[in-house]
């Protein structure tokens, strides 16, 4: 005869996740991480390793000169913030929040996230991928993924992992907005092409998925010596807010992705001919929309993965 697990002392507290549920969560994280790696390669293969892709992004780069003087006044301060000191400070802040919440392993995990994402971007950009010289634009070498976007996104993702559940929706929205602003600022300054920025967002998402999988695999904390499983309170307001926020980010991402697809498809169709100013503006607008789409969808997935990974061991802060 099987004994029923004891009733929870506090509604809404989760102490452990059943093995099958843990397996599905780890599998989902693995799929996301693999998809991000494949996505980075596809971006390089399409926009960097082909003449047509280089032509489209070169048009976007030229389109960035429109209104650049006024836009750069806003973009330059955003980019000036991103530095080694910014990454170190963001990591210390995230680790500090984890330590205050007495989540010792989480402090280590965010260090893995930030360090892994930024090191991956550097290795992929300078050691793994190359930019062939195909006679399109100036040759600055490979710039995919964007280091600025990775730095901004990894710090925002680290904060998303360590804050309490009630703060995660707001941090996800602000993180998506800040990462997108940093990415768009690199386009304004002609520091990066759109595919570089999208690839940077994918690197951050991939490492976030890896860390969330590690959270699930780590043994869960127990509130009592006898309790094994506890139910989740489905009426938890933070759970509902997480769903609504993730859905809102997905809606923004899909809408921006649709705009990017329409604009870039038109530029792609006329890539063989001489590009007019209108073509350059369309390519530039498509690139900006693509950046917004990538950052919105990435942080929507991060929010969902963090919620699922933390649901088995979350206790009030």
Automatic annotation (TrEMBL):
Keywords: Membrane, Transmembrane, Transmembrane helix. SMART domains: acidPPc (SM00014). The chain crosses the membrane at residues 24-44, 81-99, 106-124, 144-163, 170-191, 197-217, 246-269, 281-305. Residues 106-212 form the Phosphatidic acid phosphatase type 2/haloperoxidase domain. This is Membrane-associated phospholipid phosphatase. Coiled coil: none annotated. The keyword Membrane applies. It comes from Cellulomonas iranensis. It comes from the Bacteria. SUPFAM superfamilies: Acid phosphatase/Vanadium-dependent haloperoxidase. The keyword Protein biosynthesis does not apply.
């Amino acid at each position: 005869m099987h004994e029923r697990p004891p009733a929870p002392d506090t509604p809404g507290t989760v102490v452990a996740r059943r093995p099958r549920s843990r397996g599905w969560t780890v599998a989902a994280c693995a799929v996301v991480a693999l998809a991000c790696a494949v996505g980075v390669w596809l971006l390089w293969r399409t926009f960097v390793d082909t003449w047509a892709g280089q032509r489209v992004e070169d048009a976007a780069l030229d389109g960035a000169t429109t209104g650049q003087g006024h836009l750069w006044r806003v973009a330059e301060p955003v980019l000036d913030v991103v530095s080694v000191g910014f990454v170190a400070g963001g990591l210390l802040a995230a680790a500090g929040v984890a330590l205050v919440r007495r989540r010792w392993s989480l402090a280590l995990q965010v260090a893995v996230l930030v360090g892994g994402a930024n090191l991956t971007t550097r290795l992929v950009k300078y050691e793994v991928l190359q930019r062939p010289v195909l006679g399109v634009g100036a040759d600055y070498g490979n710039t995919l993924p964007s280091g600025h976007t990775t730095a901004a996104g990894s710090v925002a993702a680290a904060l998303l992992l360590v804050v309490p559940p009630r703060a995660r929706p707001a941090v996800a929205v602000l993180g998506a907005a800040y990462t997108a602003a940093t990415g768009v600022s690199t386009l304004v300054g002609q520091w990066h092409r759109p595919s570089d920025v999208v690839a940077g967002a994918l690197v951050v998402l991939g490492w976030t998925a890896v860390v969330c999988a590690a959270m699930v695999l780590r043994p869960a904390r127990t509130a009592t010596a006898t309790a094994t499983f506890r139910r989740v309170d489905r009426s938890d307001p933070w759970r509902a807010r997480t769903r609504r926020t993730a859905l809102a980010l997905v809606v923004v991402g899909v809408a921006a992705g649709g705009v990017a697809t329409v604009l870039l498809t038109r530029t792609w169709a006329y890539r063989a001919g001489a590009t007019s100013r209108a073509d350059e503006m369309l390519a530039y607008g498509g690139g900006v929309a693509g950046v917004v789409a990538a950052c919105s969808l990435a942080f929507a997935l991060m929010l969902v993965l963090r919620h699922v990974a933390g649901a088995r061991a979350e206790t009030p802060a």
